[in-house]
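Hey team,

Filing this mostly as a record. A colleague (T.K.) asked me to run one chain through the structure pipeline before their review meeting, and I want the input and output archived in the tracker in case anyone asks later how it was produced. No errors, nothing strange. Just documentation.

Input sequence:
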Amino acid sequence: MRRGNVLIAGGTGFIGYHLSLRLIKLGFKVFSLSRNKPKKKRKIKNLKYIYGDFINYSVLKKKIKNNFDYLINLGGNVNHREIDKTYNSHYVAVKNLVKISKKKNVKRFIQVGSGLEYGKIKSPHKENKKPRKINKKSIYGYSKFQSTNYLLEEFKKNSFPVVITRLYQVYGEKQDLNRFIPIVIDACLKNKSFPCSDGKQKRDFMHIDDLIDLFIKIMLKKEDINGEIFNIGTGKAYQLKKIISYIRKICRGGKPLYGKIKLRSDESLISYPLIAKAKKILKWYPKNNLYSGLKKTIRNHH
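Output structure:
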């Protein structure tokens, strides 16, 4: 069954890989837009790859030839120390993708935002809470916050069909070794020592399969959900120390060196969302608890 065309901005990344696989399986024609080619472990056969820089509109206009029913924006610079690059790839790029969407008859634009958009608001975060201002030190959170405001303006003024998701931490197989869970898994499987913080921070970690379920629910939702913001997580926060102990138990190895990494000054101790809105409106529930999700990830670790 033919389900329509999907353009995934940032389709060569970890989330883009899993989303593309599932959408192809469901009968969608999937296109990936990215600056770089996919890593070997994330190359997909039936995926059409388009390469171009999101912050250069004239390049995008030339490269993107098809019309699209859906655009999912997963794009953006991963190294948040590169301030200009991060800001441009997460905010300026959104403006270009909106322009492209209008030209290509996109029926639903899914923006992937971040829990960092809540700034200093205490967890659990609720969608209707707006921070007075966002600390520019967290350039990623600030760029995402600016993007949300821009997209909501577009929705109000021009009925732009945007749905905004605010993600917390996501993990799963084929994730790069630049995130907490894959770093810990890799060290524990090799029974190596690894530096970490004191592990007292609490974070919400969601398995990738649950996130992909959510995106599909948003894409296929018949009712009008344009202009809505949804928090996406499990709604539970775990101490990092607890997560490390789970991984060590499953891997039967690993030597954490607690206290070797200092907390960043802009880092909050507890961060997790309320997810009642996504449950109620999208009828979506995360199916993987943390322990079973970690077991699945470790079993498929390459």
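Quick notes for T.K.: Residues 91 and 143 are 5 Å apart (CA to CA). The first strand starts at residue 5 and ends at 9.
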